[in-house]
Design brief:
Layout lengths: L27 H51 L4 H10 L1 H14 L2 H5 L1 E5 L10 H11 L8 E5 L7 E5 L3 H14 L10 E4 L3 H21 L4 E4 L2 E4 L12 E7 L4 E7 L8 H10 L5 E7 L5 E2 L4 E2 L2 H12 L3 E2 L14 E5 L4 E9 L4 E7 L10 E4 L6 H9 L3 H4 L5 H19 L2 E4 L8 H17 L3 H28 L3 H11 L9 E3 L4 E3 L2 H13 L27 H9 L14 H6 L1 H18 L25
Parallel strand pairs: 8-9
Antiparallel strand pairs: 1-3, 1-4, 2-3, 5-6, 7-8, 9-13, 10-11, 12-13, 14-15, 16-17, 18-19
Helix pairs in contact: 12-19, 13-14, 17-19
Organism: Caenorhabditis japonica
Pfam family, one: Exo_endo_phos_2
GO molecular function, one term: catalytic activity
Length: about 650
């Protein structure tokens, strides 16, 4: 809204008390000009008001249109169900309940397990009753003749459920596993699926152990001589005249980091990748981070666009996509011709940065930086180990300083602060740091074996009768071992000092100050600063309050002490008699440091003492101390 300014000389308003006595003089022209300006302002206000009314009408129409749209949207969404509602309804159906019962019955039958396959990463139908049709379509694509097939959904802790297909014959299950990778791209929902036999948990452990044995033997021989058949490590049967395939794969596990590192070498592009990929498929089936490094000799893969022009390279590319692996090396690692032969696969986003460096042989150096940091399960603390400090270097530095020149322009307070800063710097440089780790008990070999056996039983059987018996036996053994160690330490003590040292190591005193009771205010004190003030008032109440009046004493001598001389040798003598203790002081300089540097510190300290007595000035830090209250008797909440 615009406004029209009125000239200050148009109307003259007099104060209230002078209106009756003073009448403003105003001509007709001035009055006419004021009326014209007010009329113009009124027209502008009317135009703006009409515009606001028009905009308000448009806004009302838009709000009404939005309300209609929201109403239609609610009516359309009312009949639709969410994914959680669809899954819940499917699991509650009678077909799903029958499926769960049949799955439980078949789980313990070994013969039926051999005639079953497990599919992972399958896009399952929304309705559980459609799983049977899905299984029939899959069998038809694999050319397996089965009159009836049972399909079950197996829930996992994380991710979509597994699909179990129960067949009549184990030959049909083997045929399905051999044909699945060829036809899965033609079956809807199976483009990224993975098939495996139905193995129990102990069988999976046996399979992993067999593959580890095969890998170790193949690495030792440098050739592909062993593989896994029927959960056992067996020798590969080569035909007469067939060349042995050479490959290498190594596994490295890091402790406390949940990281598996695999080093792979495939020597020739013309050799088959089948055995190598089968072994990798089993080794990367872990929940933690997994990294695969190595020379795969797959030059015909465009990793940036995920394309391959060679059947064998296409098989490696398909393997990485199906297993959810990401390849990080994009620059050529082999020159003339330029090819990416050295690869790095990961199943998680653990790689922070990867760079291809200079040639170190016929390949380039590949540097990989990981973003995961090792977690330290134990909390550690550090202390200065003054007994192992380099005091020869410290004394050499202190002895070369011209203290008279250094302190020539400083006050007493500045001199002492400068000395403390210098000593603190020398302590940081020449005093080593000792890491204090929490004490860990080292048990006997029998206890460790029993602990491992208990863990294995828990993983295989859970909270079974055998597990509870082993847990009870382990607790008994640990109690007997602790009792034996305690008796040995008590009996081996040859002196009272050793006995009391052992008792103090077991005594856990509570050094923290609890809640105090302020009797004057009648309230409890929990704040540390308030506690310190309460202790200060309690301690000062014991002593006499200074009234500012000096006491009078009779004169005993006529001699006067004109000056006090603090010699360096006197300071050195007293410093050399300090105890060798790493005690805590306000400056952070313990007595063991002062004693080991008594000769070098004698001169600067004597200068500071002399100036302090001469000018009657004491450094501020000398007026502070570390006071620790010790409980003696009475109530712990009473500061007295």
């Amino acid at each position: 809204m615009s406004s029209t300014s009125i000239p200050s000389d148009s109307i003259i308003l007099a104060p209230a008390e002078d209106r009756e006595s003073k009448t403003p003089e105003m001509s007709f022209e001035d009055l006419y000009r004021v009326v014209v300006e007010m009329s113009t302002s009124l027209e502008q206000v009317t135009l703006q008001n009409n515009k606001l009314v028009q905009l308000n009408g448009e806004l009302i129409k838009k709000v009404e249109s939005l309300e209609l749209s929201v109403k239609e949207l609610k009516e359309n969404c009312a009949s639709k169900k969410t994914f959680a509602q669809v899954v819940t309804a499917g699991l509650k159906s009678s077909a799903a309940q029958v499926s769960f019962i049949k799955a439980a019955e078949i789980a313990n039958d070994t013969e039926k397990r051999n005639a079953a396959v497990i599919l992972d990463k399958v896009e399952l139908p929304e309705n559980v009753s459609d799983d049977g049709q899905f299984g029939q379509a899959l069998l038809k694509a694999c050319e397996v003749q089965e009159d009836s097939v049972s399909v079950f959904r197996l829930q996992k802790r994380v991710g979509p459920p597994l699909l179990k297909i129960q067949l009549q014959k184990k030959e049909d299950a083997r045929k399905m596993m051999s044909q699945f990778n060829k036809i899965k791209s033609t079956v809807q929902g199976c483009s990224s699926a993975i098939i495996r036999p139905d193995l129990s948990k102990p069988e999976r452990e046996r399979q992993r152990a067999a593959w580890k044995e095969a890998v170790m033997k193949n690495n030792k021989a440098g050739e592909f001589l062993f593989t896994v058949r029927n959960l056992e490590c067996v020798k590969v049967q080569y035909k007469e005249g067939e060349a042995h395939r050479a490959w290498e794969i190594r596994e490295t596990r890091t402790s406390n980091t949940q990281l598996r590192v695999l080093s792979v070498y495939h020597p020739n592009h013309n050799l088959s990748y089948d055995s190598l990929l089968d072994c990798l498929k089993d080794l990367i089936s872990v929940r933690g981070n997994c990294i695969i490094f190595g020379d795969f000799n797959a030059p015909h893969v465009d990793w940036a666009n995920l394309k391959a022009s060679d059947p064998k390279c296409r098989k490696l590319l398909s393997f990485s996509i199906k297993c959810g692996l990401k390849q990080h090396v994009m620059s050529p690692t082999r020159l003339n011709p330029d090819n990416v032969l050295d690869l790095c696969f990961t199943n998680t986003d653990i790689v922070n940065e990867i760079t291809v460096g200079d040639l170190f042989s016929d390949h380039r150096f590949v540097h990989v930086s990981l973003s995961r940091q090792r977690k330290n399960s134990q909390k550690v603390s550090t202390v200065k180990c003054f007994r192992k400090g380099s005091f020869d270097e410290i004394n050499c530095i202190l002895s070369r300083i011209d203290w008279d020149f250094r302190f020539s322009t400083l006050t007493v307070e500045e001199m002492y602060q400068d000395l403390v800063a210098l000593l603190s710097n020398l302590i940081d440089k020449f005093i080593p740091v000792k890491i204090l780790k929490p004490s860990t008990k080292l048990h006997s070999s029998d206890i460790r074996k029993l602990q491992k056996k208990k863990l294995d039983v828990w993983r295989s059987e859970g909270n079974s009768v055998n597990y509870r018996a082993l847990a009870l036996l382990l607790r008994t053994r640990l109690s007997l071992e602790e009792k034996r160690i305690t008796e040995n330490r008590l009996c081996e003590g040859s002196s009272p000092h050793a006995f009391y040292k052992f008792v103090n190591s077991r005594w856990k005193s509570d050094e923290k100050i609890g809640i105090l009771r302020d009797s004057a205010a009648g309230e409890d004190v929990t704040d540390d600063i308030t506690k310190a003030s309460l202790f200060s008032d309690t301690f000062s109440s014991v002593y006499t309050t200074d009234d500012g009046c000096a006491s009078e004493f009779p004169v005993r001598t006529s001699q006067c002490l004109s000056s006090v001389d603090v010699s360096p040798h006197v300071v050195e003598f007293h410093l050399s008699h300090l105890p060798l203790k790493a005690n805590t002081t306000p400056e952070g300089i313990p007595s063991i440091f002062l004693k080991r540097t008594c000769t070098s510190l004698a001169l600067p300290l004597s200068i500071i003492y002399q100036r302090s007595l001469q000018y009657s000035i004491v450094p501020t830090v000398w007026k502070s101390a570390i006071v620790k209250p010790l409980y003696k008797k009475g109530s712990r909440c009473d500061p007295k």
